[in-house]
Amino acid sequence: MVELDFQIPSAIDPFAKANDSSGSAHQGAAEEWEEVPDHGPGYERILKDVKKDFCCNGNVVNDKELGKVIQLQGDQRKNVQAFLA
Fold first, then answer.
1. DSSP per-residue codes, 8-29
2. Are 70 and 50 in contact, with CB atoms under 8 Å apart?
3. Where in the sequence is the domain holding 77, given as residue range(s)?
4. Least confident among 13-17, 29-33, 41-45, 71-75
5. Which of 7, 18, 42, 73 is a Cys-bridge partner for 57, taking CB atoms 3.0 to 4.6 Å apart?
6. Which has the closest alpha carbon to 59: 46, 72, 76, 68?
7. Does 52 reside within a domain?
8. Is 50 exposed, middle or buried (0-12, 13-18, 19+ CB in 10 A)?
9. Nearest Cα to 41, choosing from 26, 54, 55, 56?
10. 11-33: per-residue pLDDT in tens?
């Protein structure tokens, strides 16, 4: 047998965040945003957290009528509503 020169990480519980008794699975992201001064979190920061939480792809585009818009892959309307609430 060949000995490996690296270690395999221990098992990761993918539902640990959801099983947290604090009430909201997204509470950590909101707490991090409080550090952003007066103007609130930037679109890129929100996009990064949403993409990570919902395992989807997305980007920020500039629309002529609406201004900056976050586009996400798939139907994420309910997820984003819960995330922002």
1. PPPP--TTTTTT-TTS-TTHHH
2. yes
3. 42-84
4. 29-33
5. 73
6. 72
7. yes
8. buried
9. 26
10. 666 666 655 555 555 555 555 55
The answer to whether residue 31 is domain-embedded is no
Mean pLDDT rounded to a whole number for the chain? 75
- Residue 36 phi/psi, 5-degree rounding, is -75, 130
Specify which residues 69 forms β-bridges with. 61
Q: Is residue 75 part of a domain?
A: yes
> Which H/E stretch holds residue 70?
strand 67-72
DSSP, collapsed to helix, strand or coil, labels residue 61 as strand
- Reference 48, options 63, 66, 26; nearest CA is 26
- Identify whether 10 is part of a domain: no
Output the pTM of the full model. Answer: 0.52
Residue, of 19 and 47, whose pLDDT is higher:
47
